[in-house]
Amino acid sequence: MKKNLTPAAVVLVAAFAFVAFTASVKPPFVSSGPAYAQDDWKKEFDDVCAGTQDAMLFDPEKLKELVARCDALEPRIEKLDGSQRKVMLKRLRMCRDLYRYVLQSKEGN
Amino acid sequence: MGLVLRLFCMLCIFLLYSIPATGRNKPVPEEYGRVIIDNFSRRAGLAPVRFDHWLHRAIYTCRLCHVDIGFAMQANETKIKADANEKGFYCGACHDGARTYNESKIFPSCSTKTVKPEAGKRCTRCHSTGTNAEKKLEYAAFTAQFPKQTYWNLIDWEKAEAAWLVRPIDFLEGVSLPRRALKAQKDFSIASKSTWMPDIIFSHRKHITWNGCEVCHPEIFPSVKKGAVPYTMLEISAGRYCGVCHGRVAFPLNECERCHTTPVAR
Hints:
The complex is a heterodimer of chains A (about 110) and B (about 270). Chain A is mainly α and about 110 residues long. Chain A has helices spanning about 1-25, 40-50, 60-80, 80-109, and one strand spanning about 30. Chain B is about 25% helix and about 5% strand. The interface of A and B includes residues 53, 95 and 105 of A.
């Protein structure tokens, strides 16, 4: 019985040490929390613009859909105040323009 | 007449590129990529902001600031205001007094509330152009271990990253969108317009690591058809296309061989 317990104990101690170590190591950049309110326009923005990395993998239909969703989102962002409006409009336009660019590139080919 | 004109053009090109090489316009490494931001500072009774790319690009990717935070690629185009920083936009996205880097709090940026005279040091950490304000991180010490480029002793960021001396952060909690690793397009060649200059090998891999897609397309490179735009060194020198970054923040244009890399085979 004792012989069987020893490897199990070693595994448990190793697991505990690993968990304790990973919990103690902080990432280089620690966030203070979200800078944007998580309302519905933000959710839609995140959903639409999270795909810019994969733009080249999307087919033209998908790209058209994403451009249309960006266009639909723009008036909602236009209604935001001050700096949030300015920043988010710029980000939305960059995202939409990239999808348009890839779409034109694919249609041209 | 044609020969004279051709010789004159060649002489102009030679002079254009030899001027910096003589050292007359040689940039000081510490000042390379420096942006003086002066949209509203003087009106507020403050010195213009001195923004050093060498410090920020060692810590963050280009994309984090120029896509996620929304800084324009042209100096003074963003028109950053103190209240925007205070609300957590632009500089205030990181400089909010709460976020940390390497377990140290990042100092807060602007406050529109009245600051006591002794708190003025907070303002002068950024509003330091033309002042003797002390910087917490000095160029020489900060970059001492970084590999340097062939000309002008500027930092070779590509080698610095390859040697793991810099690992720029590409995600800001609450600001950035979660991103999958981007699969690079294949490298492609761009024919040189001169018979004496090797063709260019453009590496998407080298560029997407820090920039993603949106930094370059379509704002800087709007053409979707390869070869449709005849890029010239004159336009690039004037700050268009590659010249938006190269010659200002990324390696300068006199490092010809870093782009013109293939042997001439004509």
